[in-house]
Amino acid sequence: MGERSGFQGVIGRTRAESTPWWPPEPRPPEGAPNVLVVVLDDVGFAQLGCYGSDIATPTLDGLAAGGLQYTNFHTTALCSPTRACLLTGRNHHAAGVGRVVDLATGFPGYDAVIPKSCGMLPEVLTPHGYAAYAVGKWHLTPEHEHHLGATRARWPLGRGFERWYGYFDGETSQFGPTLISDNHAVPPPGDHEDGYHLTEDLVDHGLAFLGDLRAVQPDKPWLLYLCPGACHSPHQAPAEWIERYRGHFDQGWDAWREETFARQIATGVLPEGTDLSPRPPWVPAWDDLPEDQQRVSARYMECFAAYLSHFDHHLGRLLDRLRETGELDNTLVMVLSDNGASSEGGPNGSVNDARNWNVAEMSVAEAVERIDEIGGPTIHNNYPWGWTVAGNTPFKRWKRETHEGGVCDPLIVHWPAGMAARGERRRQYSHAVDLLPTILEAIGVEMPAVVDGVEQQALAGTSLAYSFDDADAADRHTVQYFEMLGSRALYQDGWKAVTYHPIADTSIHIDDDPWELYHVAVDPSECHDLAAEEPERLRAMIERWWVEAEANQVLPVDTDLLTAILGLERPGVPDRDHYEFRPGGAPVPETCTVNVRNRSHTVTAELSGALGDAEGILLVQGSVLGGWVLFVADGRLHYVHNYVGLEQQRAVSAPLDPAARTLALHFARTGEHRGVAHLLADGVEVGAAEIPKLTPVRFAITGDGVHCGEHWGEPVCADYRRPFRFSGPLHRVLVDVSGSPFSDPESDAYDALRKQ
Fold it and tell me: Does the pLDDT of residue 565 top 80, yes or no?
């Protein structure tokens, strides 16, 4: 037998003549810190207490008081791209994440496939002896790879993390989330009625991961990447936390914005001389709203605040454990938000964001009627634009756009063992690509030229360690491009050229977008446009933007969202006319399975024995926000189509023969997004009903897919409580579809979606 390559012992003919040898475990540099990275979601510049807010965030404020608060930190304006920058140290288009992964297109800068040449932080740290754990939102795997039959190459454990507990999508229910544990799907461990909330669950898992490590290796440093849902919609929080804020925002967004701005100036969050950008004309004055609309708008904000404070509390539990074990001082903590406050609630707020995808009505009257549900499990709530603008005080615009309201966000750094500063602020220009280089410098390792055998792209970021103990250090990150959904900007040496492109409007060419110019070193809120006074500077900066764009795979600038929303270019999941589902499996994500929308389809449940008195789910797709379900209850077959939470359309059978062996739904399409649901038992029709509005574009936006024999998500209708597992001998469920779901892409919903 030959010697193993690299073996440094002695192999003789017997053990007595041999010397064993074990390769040494990788060890980090002496004194290397633990690393805790906390990524908040859709939290605007002004929404943490230490950034001027009156929302209670004592844990985060305490980190800022014991460390550094960056007030000139920037992101990409959307979540997936910012997370790609953070974890790779490369610009988002260079990493293939020019948009959120839900809107991937077949171009290198937008395909949502982060190449191995962009090594991720855990891939760099684990070879140096670090443990690496991810908890919470991921949103960096292409949608067509979310299913359990997919490659795991772009799941967290395929990119260097050793444990993961969380969810793939941009958003999920906080009371009935779609969860992955390591490399497999798991049901939520509780529900709203049991007091379950995802935030607490995520922090519990983070504590468990660290506890498992310390039980065996008390000195091994770790990376914990903690990404809560807070505060992406749905803004769901335990009722007692929402109650704490009752009446707190009754003064409205205009007054709140003025008061917050005053605190920002008084405490030095903003430099003296900063102006408050005017409220945009498309956002109504608070005092102009009817009383009922004020009441429901205040409720939306109460839920957001409760959601944020609730996370702050549970983050405190994690930090308390680190204090107890003596690890906090040598833990490099970074807390950031991935983009500015979200405008996806629209002008009046939203009780169901799935309606945005389906161009369905969103009325204030409905929100008023359901006001007590807002923040709970039946509502997917998002606040109105007025609170978005307030949350980004003092900046213009919001998430998805490249003005400062979309890209200037909170960043807190806390590391007592590694920095002398306490409670100080830093104005050095910084960006999400700077965080990986900062972590590597703090640990004392360099970015390797090769990771897992793949030559690496150069890092785009600059370590911020130079600013830790020098408030006056000159900026080292001096140029940064931005592009998001057609909106573009370039920062260069204290100046910023920026242009807004209307989202999804393909009738406007990007060359027609007017550019603005701001000296943001003295005008951080972009109030004084100098484009007319500095045309040469602006022209040069626009030219530089195109250079950066070409170097970072930004081209082609693609403003067509409809193709991605409808899945017309989605790879990996070819449409077919026959699908088979077996009970006992995990839910299959909507984008990876059968599309029953706008086409005739038949769902056939085959039993391996007589039905008897069995009941439960046969097949279900979606959740309380919208979807459909075929189930047996009270001796009858039920089909319920939930049209984006606005109405439920039902077909109920006559009493079923207990000897039945097949139960079926045949949906016969009779027009665009409508048809008749026929219920059958052993091939004989036992019920029927007209379905006047079939969901046109998407059932689920929270990861809820097709599930056979049970349902892990929030129930499509109130007739059952999850999991409502089928109690009879269910063998399999077949789904057969016919016709194209896009038979008339110029009609109704598609046309309306194009004009949004």
Answer: no
- Position 506 scores a pLDDT of 72
Cα-based angle 20, 24, 29 (whole degrees, multiple of 5)? 160
pLDDT band of residue 754 (cuts 50, 70, 90) is very low
In three-state secondary structure terms, 732 is strand
Report the alpha-carbon distance of residue 536 to residue 117 in Å, rounded: 37
Q: List Cα–Cα distances, 140 to 80, 158, 533, in angstroms.
A: 6, 12, 42
Closest CA to 518 of 411, 398, 396: 396
* Cα(244)–Cα(303) distance, integer angstroms: 10
Residue 327 token pair = 């690890």
Helix (H) or strand (E) holding 72: strand 68-74
Per-residue three-class SS string for 321-337: HHHHCCCCCCEEEEEEE
Contacts of 753 (CB under 8 A, 6+ apart): 357, 359, 504, 562, 565, 697
Q: Which two tokens stand for residue 135?
A: 């908890």
Overall average pLDDT of the 320-337 stretch: 98
β-strand pairing of 68-74 with 424-426 = parallel
- For residue 68, the model assigns a pLDDT of 98
Q: What gap in Å lies between CA 484 and CA 476, rounded to an integer?
A: 24
- Asked if the model's pLDDT at residue 515 lies above 80, the reply is yes
Of residues 734, 737, 612, 635, the one with CA closest to residue 687: 635
Residue of 286, 422, 425, 299 lying closest to 350 (CA atoms)? 299
Whether 544 contacts 492, CB under 8 Å: yes
d(CA 691, CA 677): 7
**If you average pLDDT over residues 370-387, what whole number do you get?**
97
Token readout for 59 is: 């844990």
- State what percent of residues in the chain have pLDDT above 70: 96
Residues ≥6 apart with Cβ < 8 Å to 471: 421, 424, 425, 426
Distance CA 483, CA 401 (A): 8
The chain-wide mean pLDDT, for the chain, equals: 95
Q: Which helix (H) or strand (E) holds 544?
A: helix 535-551
Question: Do residues 436 and 459 make contact, with C-beta atoms less than 8 angstroms apart?
Answer: yes
pLDDT at position 508: 82
What pLDDT does residue 753 have?
Answer: 44
**Model confidence pLDDT, tens digit, residues 81-112:** 999 999 999 999 999 999 999 999 999 999 99
* Rg (the chain; Cα; Å): 27
Helices 58-65/291-324 angle, 10° precision:
50
- What is the CB neighbour count within 10 angstroms for residue 278? 11
Q: Is 430 helix (H, G, I), strand (E, B) or coil?
A: strand
- Residues in CB range of 104: below 8 A, 6 or more apart: 110, 111, 112, 142, 143, 564, 570
3-state helix, strand, coil in the chain (%, to 5): 25, 20, 50
For 569-598, the pLDDT digits (tens) are: 667 667 789 999 999 999 999 988 999 999
At residue 83's C-alpha, the angle toward residues 81 and 87, to 5°, is 120
| Mean predicted confidence (pLDDT) in 275-300 | 97
In 247-360, the DSSP E strands lie at 331-337
Taking a C-beta distance cutoff of 8 angstroms, is the pair 336, 75 a contact? yes
Identify the H or E element spanning 63: helix 58-65
The whole-number pLDDT of residue 32 equals 97
Contact criterion met (CB below 8 Å) for 347 and 382: no
Spatial contact of 224 and 35, defined as CB atoms under 8 Å apart: yes
**Token pair of 231 as six digits:** 């505060």
CA distances from 528 to 228, 519, 660 (A): 36, 8, 74
What phi-psi label fits residue 249: left (phi over 0), alpha (psi between -120 and 50 degrees) or beta?
A: alpha
